Amino acid sequence: MTPIKIVFFGLGAVGSAMLICFSELAERDGAAIRFVVYVRNPDEARDALFHAEQLFEHIDFIKLSDFSSVFALEPAHEQELTGATFLVNAALPEFNGAMLELALRIGAHTVDLASDIYGAKTERTLTFAQYAYDTALRERGIAALINMGVSPGVTNFLIGRRMHDLLATDRKDLEVESIDLYLLEDIDSDSIVFSWSPVVALEELAQHPRILRDGRMLVLDPFSEAREYHFPHEASSSRQYPLYQEELLSLHRSFPEIESIGVYTGGSEVELVKALFQLNLLSKRSLPDRPEMTIEAMVRAILPGMNKPRRIEEYLRSGTIRRAHFAAAAEIRVSETVRNERQTAIETVGLSYLRYPELLNSPYAGATYIAYPTAASAAILAWHALDYLRTKSAQTLSGVITGEDLARILPRPRADAIRRDLVAWDIDLFESVRDASET
């Protein structure tokens, strides 16, 4: 049996958990699998897999100071890349373009977890940079799965699945008025524990958020226009703030007829960054006695870094981390004529990851409560896309593919299998419909 070869660029908190999940999916489905992992420090990569050492015999760890020689397809790397099925960017969005160029040369599909949405071109065009390769990818029959993970990723898949069902009813008077996505990243801990790199968190949350309102893309002040949202399994509501995240641009592209789309976020990590912002500690102003350093740069330098997997496991095992909850809930506002009058309903689709302590007795011990659902979601979506590619014409799944695209293209039994796998990997799903007048 020819093994499925998956090539990783980087193997941090998400990449390591994603590799484990691919291995579990392959074992379940009786598929042989092989990994090539390009990293700066193979010892750190191995350490991230400290509860999954049995996988080392299936992994080729390759040390590189940077990825440029691989992206250039230098002869030393040709054999490593021969027969690659998927290339996975588990490092930074800035590598997406180079990875896609490599994929076009060797004929491999790709997976990335996020896009560079803060670049000047993306802000101007409101289009992800990966779409520049869409035509070439389609001509080669290559699929580039972009913005995979839990959010973005599964959020887009769930919203897309519900939207395509709504549009398939062909009710001429049905109108989707708005989509609002609410995110919760909440951790109760005796120590400050960042689920993401603090630098990434600061960059994302301190950006000027955007929302689509009445057909216009509006730029807001950070932490303005807050809302309250009550997530399942939470005793009280969460303060939610507008956030500029991939779902906004992706949903706007997939469903241009919807005039109002917003993404909101809240929870303990968000409140920490809000406090820094309100104390002016994210200011770009220079320090009085050090003009070469800004206040923001100083704060970034002294904030605790992202903890290593062994420390995260120690925090969880010792009870330092008492509770953690990641959730996402999308409210789709739908109006139509019913019983001779216009009625509006709110359809909610969402997910919740609340079983974080159970990672302690699994190969994933050491993952954060955000890294784990992100990795498992990305692996599950990619695995089912790959299985579909192996059984159908590749031309039916080629070019740049988002979560909404997967929801539209994959047959219903396949989409349902994705939902079951998400639940099997401890990511619970929920949905409901209520009268908008009850809000």
Automatic annotation (TrEMBL):
The chain crosses the membrane at residues 6-26. This is Saccharopine dehydrogenase. PANTHER family: CARBOXYNORSPERMIDINE SYNTHASE. Pfam families: Sacchrp_dh_NADP. Keywords: Membrane, Transmembrane, Transmembrane helix. It comes from Methylotuvimicrobium buryatense. InterPro entries: NAD(P)-bd_dom_sf, Sacchrp_dh_NADP-bd. It comes from the Bacteria. Residues 6-144 form the Saccharopine dehydrogenase NADP binding domain.
